[in-house]
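User: Second chain of the day. Same drill as before.
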Amino acid sequence: MVKILMRSSIKTRLLALTGFMLVAIVIATATGVRGLYKDHESLETITTQKLPAINSVTGFRIVMSNIHRFTIQAWQFQNESGAQRRFQEALRNKSLWIEKLENYYKSYDLLPKSKDEEKLWKEIQEPYKKWRELNDRIDREILIELSKEDFQANRQTELFAAFKLYNK
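Assistant: Same format as last time:
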């Protein structure tokens, strides 16, 4: 092929060179477009799956930290006067954080996950649901007890201990 080009005229050589350059440009363009498409897919995955997942998990952890903070605060004022009122406030604040927790839980549940993420998520769901049921039951019982007019002070210690146990 090279010998044929060497014997041909300059016009033929220039046409052959132009043809090779056009083929190279088409290949480079196709490769670039394919690369851009793959980059777009990667960015799409990051923005629609990974970042929302990170946001949900981070939010979940922040909310759990706040619930733990309320537990510690409640535990600290258990023997103070006015502890019942402060405890009721802590439970109200906690219920607001529980709502946020549920929102993060639901948003993460809806996201597409890899097989490993799906496996881990399934392992987390059952303990979380048990914790929520038990936690909600304890909180309801405590609020009922605290609203009674004949509330006994010795019962307060039991309630605070139950609250601490189920809100670690």
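DSSP finds five helices and no strands in the chain.

User: Great, on to the next one.
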